[in-house]
Amino acid sequence: MQFTINRRLLRNNCLFFLSVFFILEFIHLSFFKRHDSFSKEIKLPSINILSNNKYQKASPNTKLFQHLQPFYYPISCQNLYESDSDELKHALALLADIKNPSSIADQSYNITKEQCQNYRSERFNEQFHHEDTPINRKFPLAFSILMYENVEQFERLLRILYRPQNVYCVHVDKDATSHVLQAVRSIAQCFDNVILASKQEKVLYATFSRLQADINCMEDLIKYPSWKYLLNAANSELPLKTNSELVKILTIYRGYNDIEGRWKSRNVHRTEYSWQVIDTASGNQEQVPQIRKTDEKKKPPPGNVEIVKGSAYGAFSRAFIEFVHTSSIAKELLDWSRDTYSPDEHYWATLNYNTHLHPPGGYKAKSDPTNWTARFVNWGERNCYGRIIRGICVFGTVDLPTLFNRHELFANKFHINADPIAYQCLEELLVNKSKLDLPLNDATFYRQMPFLLPT
Ligand SMILES: *[C@@H]1O[C@H](CO)[C@@H](O)[C@H](O)[C@H]1NC(C)=O
Ligand SMILES: *[C@@H]1O[C@H](CO)[C@@H](O)[C@H](O)[C@H]1NC(C)=O
Ligand SMILES: *[C@@H]1O[C@H](CO)[C@@H](O)[C@H](O)[C@H]1NC(C)=O
């Protein structure tokens, strides 16, 4: 009762102030056009009231951020997941027709702080976030996202992953264009829990910089006290599980790390010799830095560790990341790895599998577990229906039924320009699934993961 009266009073007051504002603005426009510094001070707050009000009263189709709505292809994703051949033909015909996929220019993400509320309500499903379950709220996750280009894809990824209780760190490559950096900054400023990495690296394929970029984000994320697990990702990835599903799976993992590791299959050249980054002249006179093996043999790694080959991506428990951040062996190994080939693919595994280091959530036996769930990557061991880039499949529309059935947390890789329909359909599936908080139908699969040894 009290509240209604106050609201009405407030509205009347607003109407009154608005009328006054219009009169003042009229006077201002007519007579004081040149007094800019003065007018700015009184104008700004008035404009805020006006624009908020305008937004609330506007019809649903007059959106401030209409230009940031992605183009969605007229296709039934549901039929594609069900391998309907007519729908697939339809999708492939659409894709064949796309010469320049309609994408949103990086410069379009020029959101001002004052527009953040509108931006969030138009582009992020706030209503739905506020209805998230207490279980999910009590199990915050941290994400690091490495990116170089394509802000539209970043925004769409963030939109899928975003929940108010989680924390997100974005590492924008030091070599990214200023448009990309500006755009990501203007998105991040709209969220308390989305930060940019405080240190930027120029990430070069297979070099230490790739690992350092992740570590920069992890060091920023560790300052947020609530999260339980950290998942690192690239802008070219999509989750296969909703936030609720991630929480359920990581609850089953009870602090164990989901880090791929293989004792036997490491390539000794990667770590037994010192590697250097050198500029090589490419065809068009440009100096392209590349990593090259030298003849210099490296000293054995510190702490009597054995190098274990794994993946750059994982699901890391908070205690493990604290260990990486504080233990001296983790620091020494990191230093030792600077001149190795692709240290991102052995650093996490080496720390996780060398039992004598007692890493929190680490693997307790000196043998390879045989399966992990952090990533689904198709290295060409099965048919790739998209495009193969650097030996990795960039998933396409025909891969959708396979993706639907995978248990992994994320899939690597996707590109909205390579196959916008695959991207759109995985997005749609995740949005649909996240509105239903169903039980995990494959919980047994996760409970049987070999890295969950009895304690
Ligand atoms: C998602 O939900 C919408 C609305 O209910 C439905 O039309 C669509 O087919 C669903 N898509 C998938 C992939 O389940
Ligand atoms: C912001 O982006 C929109 C859409 O691209 C453009 O029309 C507008 O002029 C831009 N504003 C600024 C301040 O750059
Ligand atoms: C996990 O590894 C075990 C042991 O090799 C194997 O029997 C099982 O089939 C694997 N599960 C999956 C789903 O690959």
Automatic annotation (TrEMBL):
<keyword id="KW-0325">Glycoprotein</keyword>
<protein>
    <submittedName>
        <fullName>Uncharacterized protein</fullName>
    </submittedName>
</protein>
<comment type="pathway">
    <text>Protein modification; protein glycosylation.</text>
</comment>
<keyword id="KW-0472">Membrane</keyword>
<keyword id="KW-1133">Transmembrane helix</keyword>
<keyword id="KW-0328">Glycosyltransferase</keyword>
<keyword id="KW-0735">Signal-anchor</keyword>
<dbReference type="InterPro" id="IPR003406">
    <property type="entry name" value="Glyco_trans_14"/>
</dbReference>
<comment type="similarity">
    <text>Belongs to the glycosyltransferase 14 family.</text>
</comment>
<keyword id="KW-0808">Transferase</keyword>
<dbReference type="GO" id="GO:0016020">
    <property type="term" value="C:membrane"/>
</dbReference>
<keyword id="KW-0812">Transmembrane</keyword>
<dbReference type="GO" id="GO:0008375">
    <property type="term" value="F:acetylglucosaminyltransferase activity"/>
</dbReference>
<feature type="region of interest" description="Disordered">
    <location>
        <begin position="284"/>
        <end position="304"/>
    </location>
</feature>
<dbReference type="Pfam" id="PF02485">
    <property type="entry name" value="Branch"/>
</dbReference>
<feature type="transmembrane region" description="Helical">
    <location>
        <begin position="12"/>
        <end position="32"/>
    </location>
</feature>
